[in-house]
Design a protein that fits this description.
The longest helix is centred in the last third of the chain and has 38 residues. Helices cover 37% and strands 10% of the residues.
C-alpha cells in the first residue's frame, strides 16, 4: 500500500514507523498532566481525547474521555473504522481543519507512555495436583516450580518497563530433578546472587546444626579449662568463651 500523504511532515518518511496508514493507539501523559488517549503520527502523538472533547471527533459518545481504550475496543469494528477514517481525514494533506488539530500534536520525545487498556484477565495457577492432572500429564518440573496458564495477561506492561524475571529451573545432565545453578547461569546471576539465593538456602539447616554443635563444644571446653588450668599459665589456655564468662 502506498503511503498516505499527511501535512505532518515526519509521517511521510518512507522509513518512518508511524505514517498516516498506521496510527497506532496508546495512552500518554505530558509533563504533569493526567494520562489520556492518543495516536502516534510521525514524530508526534495526536491527543485524540482532546479532539473529541472539542468536537473535532464525533464518535457517537464520549469514548475517549477515560485514560484507556477499553470503551473503544468494546465498540466494535464499525467504531474502530469510523475513528480511523475521521483521524485520517484530519491529518491528510490539505485537511481544512489543520489549524485546529496542530495544537493537539505533542512530540513523542516529550511524553510518557502508559498501559493503553485496563487488564481484566486473570492467572490460574496449577495449585492443586488433582486439578492439574485432569488437564494432562504433568511435566517433571511441576513439583519444583509453579505453572500457570493465561499468565501473560496479568503481567502486561509498557515496553521498556523493567521486569524482574523469575529464576527458572532446568534439569541438569545426570539429575532426576531440576537444579538451580544452570538456570542461574542462563539468567546471568552473579556469584553473590548464586550464593545468596541458591547455595546459602540449601546450606542453612546444616549451618544451624554446625553452629549449635560448636557452641555446645565450646561450653564443654570451658568446663575443662575452668577445672584444670583456670586459663593459665599466663592466660595461655583461655578461649573466647572462657573470657566471655569470666569477664562478663
Amino acid at each position: 500500500m502506498a503511503l498516505l500523504k499527511s501535512w505532518v511532515v515526519s509521517a511521510n518518511r518512507p522509513d518512518g514507523d508511524f505514517p498516516l496508514n498506521n496510527l497506532p493507539c496508546g495512552v500518554f501523559s505530558h509533563g504533569t498532566g493526567d494520562p489520556r488517549c492518543g495516536m502516534a503520527i510521525g514524530d508526534f502523538v495526536l491527543d485524540v481525547a482532546g479532539l473529541e472533547a472539542e468536537g473535532l471527533l464525533s464518535l457517537g459518545g464520549p469514548y475517549l474521555e477515560a485514560p484507556y481504550w477499553n470503551d473503544v475496543m468494546e465498540g466494535g469494528p464499525a467504531l474502530w473504522a469510523d475513528l480511523r477514517a475521521q483521524v485520517t481525514a484530519l491529518l491528510r494533506d490539505g485537511a481544512s481543519k489543520r489549524f485546529l488539530v496542530e495544537d493537539h500534536l505533542i512530540p513523542l520525545t516529550a511524553v510518557t507512555l502508559h498501559l493503553p487498556f485496563v487488564v481484566a484477565e486473570f492467572t490460574d495457577f496449577f495449585a492443586g495436583r488433582h486439578h492439574a492432572d485432569r488437564v494432562g500429564p504433568l511435566p517433571p518440573n511441576w513439583l519444583h516450580m509453579p505453572l500457570a496458564y493465561n499468565g501473560r495477561a496479568s503481567s502486561v506492561v509498557v515496553s521498556g518497563t523493567p521486569v524482574r524475571r523469575p529464576w527458572g529451573q532446568i534439569k541438569g545432565k545426570g539429575f532426576d530433578t531440576p537444579t538451580l545453578y544452570e538456570a542461574a547461569a542462563i539468567e546471568g546471576a552473579s556469584k553473590w546472587q548464586v550464593f545468596r539465593y541458591i547455595t546459602w538456602p540449601g546450606l542453612k539447616n546444616t549451618a544451624v546444626l554446625v553452629f549449635i554443635v560448636i557452641t555446645m563444644q565450646a561450653f564443654g571446653l570451658f568446663a575443662r579449662i575452668n577445672v584444670m588450668t583456670k586459663g593459665g599459665p599466663m592466660d595461655s589456655t583461655q578461649t573466647i568463651v572462657f573470657q566471655a564468662i569470666e569477664r562478663g
